[in-house]
Design a protein that fits this description.
Elements: H1 3-11, H2 19-37, H3 42-46, H4 53-57, H5 63-66, H6 76-97, H7 99-117, H8 128-141, E1 146-149, E2 153-156, H9 157-174, H10 177-186, H11 188-221, E3 242-247, E4 250-255
Antiparallel strand pairs: 1-2, 3-4
Length: 262
């Protein structure tokens, strides 16, 4: 049994349904809290809940959990769009995988991101990269799904996924060591779920291509005509002519010297 299957079985009794709407709802509550209490100074609301490892080590353990409730943006329109997309694709993944497996996907991303944050104890860790991997998982399973970019332009999920990988790649290349580690940690769940499948798919395609090439080469090396009596072929005797005759055991090839006489 694969490790993911084992972990999914362990998680099944405590798995939470509708986890994507729960996370989006928590972020929406924090967003409303900011807009109502401190729209000019959102840091005042966010400061007690963002993930800062050195403050976790100082006893503020709740930050390990509450950073998941930080909104993706403070722009009302894009925040709503982000939540709607996250809920849509999260619910779709939960339907495809089942509740426990979707919980496991997010759990691996959360654990990896939280652990990687301690590489930069004084820095603030966001949930943005981790949330992005939910979209990457959806795009891997449904690459032809259509999204309306800016509510107008139809774009397939696979092209948006490539754009997301480019963003992650730029962050990994240009960022400091701690940010590189955060990028790797953020895609740990995607890698755990899909990398073995993609490696196997690549190996299967390679093996199939090799078999096809060998079959083609074998077919090309076989002579087009071979007399069943003398064994001569069109390659060994280019001037020789051949005929085919139907026999009780099937159609047979004969050179003109050995064609059966009626």
């Amino acid at each position: 049994m694969r490790p993911l299957d084992t972990m999914e079985r362990w998680l099944r009794p405590v798995a939470m349904p509708y986890l994507a709407p729960v996370l989006a709802g928590a972020q929406a509550i924090v967003f409303i809290w900011i807009m109502v209490s401190s729209p000019q100074d959102p840091a005042r609301v966010l400061d007690p809940i963002v993930l800062v490892p050195e403050r976790v080590l100082a006893g503020e353990w709740w930050r390990i959990f509450t950073f998941l409730a930080v909104p993706p943006t403070l722009h009302p329109l894009w925040a709503i769009v982000s939540w709607l997309v996250f809920v849509m694709i999260g619910n779709d993944l939960e339907r495809q995988w089942g509740m426990a497996r979707f919980n496991l996907f997010l759990l691996i991303g959360w654990l990896a991101t939280s652990a990687a944050s301690f590489a930069n104890p004084s820095g603030t860790t966001t949930n943005g990269f981790m949330m992005m991997t939910v979209f990457l998982a959806f795009a891997t399973l449904a690459p032809e799904a259509i999204f309306r970019l800016f509510f107008v332009l139809p774009v397939k999920a696979k092209w948006l996924a490539w754009l997301a990988w480019i963003v992650l790649g730029i962050a990994f290349i240009r960022g400091p060591g701690a940010e590189r580690l955060a990028v790797l940690a953020s895609v740990a769940n995607w890698a755990a779920f899909f990398l073995p499948m993609l490696i196997k798919r690549t190996r299967d395609r390679t093996a199939r291509a090799v078999r096809t090439a060998r079959t083609r080469d074998a077919s090309a090396s076989q002579p087009r005509h071979r007399c069943v009596v003398c064994g001569r072929t069109g390659e060994s005797d280019p001037l020789l002519e051949f005929r085919y005759a139907t026999q009780p055991d099937g159609t047979q090839c004969y050179c003109t010297e050995h064609v059966p006489r009626a």
